[in-house]
Amino acid sequence: MHLIKVNAIHSTNSFARQMFRENSNMPATCIVAKMQMEGRGQRGTSWDAEDGKNLTFSIVFPKPGFSPARQFLLSAAVATHVAGVLEKYRLPRLKVKWPNDIMSANLKIGGILIENVITEGRVVASIIGLGLNVNQENFPGLLAAGSMASVSGQQYDLDEVLGSLLENFETKLAALSDEDSEAILTDYKNHLFRKGVPSTFELPDGSFLTGIISDVSESGKLLVQTEAEEIKEFDLKEIKLLY
Fold first, then answer.
1. Where are the domains positioned within the chain?
2. Span 198-241 CATH architecture
């Protein structure tokens, strides 16, 4: 995989998308930024990271092997790959919070944003953005945020962690296909944060729901068992887990 390092950039995902727009035949490429001024997360949120202490990068993966209807398959594969790599660092209670936040010790240490480029009904490229809090220890105003250092009490070499994340990443993505879906989803569900645990959720109208995460569908929808023992299905913008 090609590696590009930059000092400062508005958004690695936006930069990656522009690179692909200018050269659709480019190889798989990772863009790493020391400072990201307009990092983006799910639901239109921003991703703020202390300069020089964390990893913010995006991977341009051209010609992914899945159909538009199976976009969640890529999201699940990336999230479980990241969680699996971080397990070697012995971080406590590593989980994936639906859809693809990386959790350790009940704190969010990483976030993934995937933007697929679709042309004429085909996914022609995937832009995979990852923000991982590595050595930052203070998160003013963010009670649920943490880092590899804050949950382990250790400092890490950023290049070494990046190398671990990128190792075999391209091979894993290149092998992605609909036939892999069952194994990928099983692995994802095994890592799922608060699965089977009574939790509180917020709905778009500001009301709250108490329920238990029971499953995730192949399309990435969250299945929640309510107090009335009904199974309700929610898309990304239809529900928010509050713990």
1. 2-190, 198-241
2. Roll (2.30)
Fold of the CATH domain 2-190: BirA Bifunctional Protein; domain 2 (3.30.930)
Cα–Cα distance for residue pair 46/141, rounded to 1 Å: 14
Q: Which two tokens stand for residue 126?
A: 């995937």
The pLDDT tens digits along the chain (243 residues) read: 899 999 888 899 999 999 999 999 999 999 999 887 765 555 455 555 677 899 999 999 997 767 788 889 899 999 999 999 999 999 999 999 999 999 999 999 999 999 999 988 888 999 999 999 999 999 988 889 999 999 999 999 999 999 999 998 988 887 776 567 888 999 999 999 999 999 999 999 999 999 999 999 989 999 999 999 999 999 989 999 997
